[in-house]
Here is the input.
Amino acid sequence: MAGTSRLGFTDKLRAHLELLDPVTWISVFPSIAVGAMASGMMQPTVHDFLILLVAFLMFGPLGTGFSQSINDYYDLELDRVNEPSRPIPSGRLSEKEAVWNSIVVFCLALGSGVSLGLHFGGGRGLVIFSAIAIALVLAYIYSAPPLKLKKNILTSAPAVGIAYSMLPILAANAMFSEVRIEAVWLAGMNFFMGVALIIMNDFKSAKGDEESGLKSLTVMIGTKNTFLVAFIIIDLVFAIFSWLAWSWGFTILFYMVLVGLVLNMAIQVLLYRDPKGGLSFMQHAVDDGFGNAIGKSEVQEHNSFLRYQVANNLLFLINLLVAGGMIGVTYM
Here is the structure.
């Protein structure tokens, strides 16, 4: 441990980057893409692509990075049990260095929101600035006392769903047009999908949560019931999605979503029957195909969830992106 204070510049930089947990940045990109596409107004210009890049940096490396950094700082004792190799518990970063990490990315994220808000102005600018400001506040109170939303799944999952899944869609949509009502629907569905996935993601820290008194759903009702609750939410999202596609006149999308629902339910049955070893035929996709994007786990139930996440994300996000594109075409 003592030797870690003498880490070289490159190793320190790597530790700071790891504290921001780059694997989580990816999750906001589909949301930003869907919001931009649904506007129907994005043009193939340098300006618009730069705006899209700034949006990703604001919600990804900066916004999401802040949430991960501040979470690691306040969860130091918990991470000594659940993830001892993380930068702070491993000693590669001091607590003071972690604080400076979170301050820097917070300021950069908020500064980006202010800049974009002023650039667009009016109601659209207000939506963009409010989106990142709310996301940053939620990221802080999620981990920090006295609120510490992560103590209870009834507050933690909605907070993450709003910050990660809903607000990026609305902000990206506002960057290119007035916020479309269809984009609001997509943001709402993405919110509930995010809630369901966060519920299952807590499998990885169930042991530490139980020891520290955190009320994750897994701790309160057990693994199989947690899967069941998440599956019900996911299937309802697919069902509402199919109804919306039909009401919007997107017949092809309607059938695509229905197929996605049926396949999802079939996969869910396999996983519910075997929470620890379910979907083992997809392990190769996790290890070699998507491992760097969604992470890996030593907890059997969480590893099963990661296998499910690959299938669910493909089924849902493809349909979400197609919906964004179809909506955008109607506004061109």
User: Anything to note?
Assistant: The mean pLDDT is 89. The first helix runs from residue 9 to 19. Residues 23 and 293 are 5 Å apart (CA to CA).
